[in-house]
Amino acid sequence: MALYIKAAEILEKAQRKQGALKTLVYDSKFGNIKQLFALVCETQKFSSVLEEVIETTKLLKQTKLKMHMAKVLEFYCELVLLFRIGFMIIVIVRHT
């Protein structure tokens, strides 16, 4: 969970123009810089889509999450969903 919390903090700092993503990630002294940087960059890349999903589902009103944490968690959920769908397709194709 520390990874997602740190990613949300970095995204929030980047939005407030406290530094570039790469600088903020490396200054964080997080244990796994590569993993953190990948998560932050990918979440930032899909930020507008994630915001739209979060606003459409009214996620922030239903939970105590802040926008940046919601984006990180939503991105993770989307990745898990895509992985599972891909795995299911592979299994179906192999058994047909």
The count of strands amounts to 0
Please tally the helical runs, counting DSSP H or I stretches of 4 or more residues. Answer: 6
Counted up, domains total 1
Strand content: under 5%
Uncertain residue segments? none
Largest sheet descriptor: none
- End-to-end Cα distance, whole Å, is 39 Å
Helix/strand/pairing category: mainly alpha
Helix and strand sequence: HHHHHH
Please state the CA-atom Rg, rounded to the nearest Å.
Answer: 16 Å
Average pLDDT over all residues: 85
- Described by the principal axes of the CA atoms, the overall outline is globular
Oligomer: single chain
Percent of residues in helices comes to: over 70%
Write a short abstract of this structure.
The chain is mainly alpha-helical and 96 residues long. 80% of the residues lie in helices and 0% in strands.
Please describe what this structure looks like:
This protein has 96 residues and is an all-alpha fold. The protein has six helices and no strands. The protein is globular and about 55 Å long. The N and C termini lie far apart (39 Å).
